[in-house]
Amino acid sequence: MTVSISYIVFFDNLFATFVNHACGVFEILKLHVEKLHVKADGNRGHPLNNFQMIMKNLKHCSDLQTQILKFVKDLESSYNIALLIIVGVNILTVVLTGMTAIIKKTEPGEMLRMAFVSGGALCHLFWISWLGHALEVQSEKVFISAYQGEWYDMPCQLQLMIIPIMIRSLRPCRLTAGKFYIMSMESFGNALKMMISSFTVLNSMR
């Protein structure tokens, strides 16, 4: 049992580390996109006099975006099966232990134990769903920062070069469980409704 818990904790910590790394890179990319026409020292020159600087910043943003999108794609392909198992086990655990808690309502100790197990599984599902949601929200901010940035201060020919960055940011990065359950708070809410419905049906069949 202790070994199993250690594996779960290790998996969660590693997954959270990868997701937080991706969120951090998206935040860095967002800040770079917002300051495309600003020098490293914070001073602004006339855009036409800083053509090479802006070109360099655009290339850096494009390269950084390519790297982080590949990282998220690799993360998705590496974890989607494991996440499917975790989501399935957590949902099943919540439903079965919740039902057991009702059946054992005459035994307070056993009912409380089942309630704690159910609550732990629910918190675990919330945690991994929130991580996926955080990544999705952070990736969407890149497009917003590009749109709301002071791109109009850039030379006209360079304004068009920011469009590919915006286009690649239109589709938010998402992690899935088995390619069909999106790791997000919306999916967590839907799963919670489904668990409550299943719990109600099982309880009515007693």
Automatic annotation (TrEMBL):
Superkingdom per UniProt: Eukaryota
GO cellular component terms listed in the entry, alphabetical order: plasma membrane
Keyword Transcription: no
An example Gene Ontology biological process: signal transduction
Keywords: Cell membrane, Membrane, Olfaction, Receptor, Sensory transduction, Transducer, Transmembrane, Transmembrane helix
Compartments where located: Cell membrane
TM stretches of this protein: 81-103, 115-135
Primary localization class, coarse: membrane
Membrane topology: Multi-pass membrane protein
Molecular-function annotations in GO: odorant binding; olfactory receptor activity
Pfam families to which the protein is assigned, alphabetical: 7tm_6 (PF02949)
Name assigned to this protein: Odorant receptor 85e
